[in-house]
Amino acid sequence: MKKKLYPIAITIAGSDSGGGAGIEADLKTFAALGVHGVVALTSVTAQNTYQVTGIHDLPPEMVARQIITVWEDIGIDAGKTGMLSNSEIIRAVAETVSKLGFPLVVDPVMIAKSGAPLLRPEAMNALIKYMVPIATVITPNKHEAEKITGMKINNFEDARKAAKYIVEELGATAAIVKGGHIEVGEESIDIMYYNGKFYEFRAPRIVDGCTHGTGCSFSAAIAVELAKGRDIVKAVKTAKKFITMAIKYGVKVGRGACPVNPMAWIEIPAMKYHVIESVKEALKIIIENQKLFNKYIPETGSNLVMAIDPRYAETINDVAGVKGRIVRYGDGVKIVGPVEFGASSHMARLVLTAMKYDPSIRSAMNLKYDEKLVERAEKKGYIVVYIDRRNEPEEVRLVEGRSIPWIMETAFKKVKRVPDIIYDTGDVGKEAMIRVLGKTPVEVVYKALSIIRE
Ligand SMILES: Cc1ncc(COP(=O)(O)OP(=O)(O)O)c(N)n1
Ligand SMILES: Cc1ncsc1CCOP(=O)(O)O
């Protein structure tokens, strides 16, 4: 069968005016995972990260009409439901989806993270009676699974029983009981029952991540993978990876539970590509001027680095640099290895610390200390800071990796901003060094060239 270039996924769900959950989270998820998303809106909510102040349900015929209208022209390969709000909407959706017959992920939304009810109490039975049997996959959390099954879920054994019950007694094809609030440990474990077997999906638990919209985005990601024709197990595996990243790199806005970030899935790889290209572009300028740089490459070698966006940069693995560094070679220089993330330790930590003070400073390079370079930098009006490494406290010296952050912190304290240049004249076993900082590698290299040139 010929593969479709644009698989279509539908979200049948409510709108979250805060942009974190509901159709807003679903459409971001659809786009990030590469399908065309279409919508049947069920309800408009006035909502932010900590409260829901209003709910306005659409007429059930209008919900059904949206699904049918999209189907007739664009087609639907798979769908998901979110907030269905009342029993009339549930019936209209169940009837329409059953007629059209596409795979459906049911996220049995009942209560918002903020605590507001999103399903009327009168609709609980309709949800169990009409939605569960047509679910290809249903994705309840602990509370939702308890409501659907009438069981108490206190551990993974209970979660297994509930998942099996939802499939064997209530008629879903597969049921995933999400482990977010069950036996809280180092991992977040979801339990799925499907085709007579149990499956576990594990991911490291993100302690301080953003969770508003988690259920929406997770179920939307499963729907995407089903729309692409993946089997249920593969679809859930991808969705688990996807949601872990969306929680970890959440959108830190609002006073309540901050929203997940489905765009992280594509934004981070795109950024990494851009960062690598930026370092490479600047390395070309170094090679074009290698005779000038030759004299100013330190014995330990030089590195040129750039970090990804400060919203995402955490460790040296988020900073790209030259593997094996830049070294002196004949009367020029040699770029020893490829540009890679995690290739630099010293300059990467310098930039990570600088970004805490000024997120726009994402790049740096080190040069051999020469007083002429310092003089020229001062003459040019750069902010230049001298650090006396003999003042490095004992507790900093003794801890691997603490010196560079200390140098940056001390320099910042002196001039109340991230300087253009931080230099030191060395200490026992420590080579004297000039560090040039800037927004981009090209800016850093031109800054370096401007003080190297006589
Ligand atoms: C319109 C709308 N739909 C669904 C939700 C639920 O989202 P959230 O409160 O973050 O809970 P989960 O996504 O984890 O189930 C909502 N708040 N609004
Ligand atoms: C600044 C510096 N200090 C010791 S080695 C060195 C050069 C660059 O090191 P890295 O490749 O770890 O950034």
From TrEMBL:
Ranges for domain Pyridoxamine kinase/Phosphomethylpyrimidine kinase: 16-261
Residue ranges of every copy of the Thiamine-phosphate synthase ThiN domain listed in the record: 279-449
Keyword list, A-Z: ATP-binding, Kinase, Multifunctional enzyme, Nucleotide-binding, Thiamine biosynthesis, Transferase
Identification of the protein by name: Bifunctional thiamine biosynthesis protein ThiDN
Top class in the EC scheme: transferase
Xref: InterPro entries: Aldolase_II/adducin_N_sf, HMP/HMP-P_kinase_dom, PM/HMP-P_kinase-1, Ribokinase-like, ThiN
Gene Ontology terms: cellular component: cytosol
Organism: Staphylothermus marinus (strain ATCC 43588 / DSM 3639 / JCM 9404 / F1)
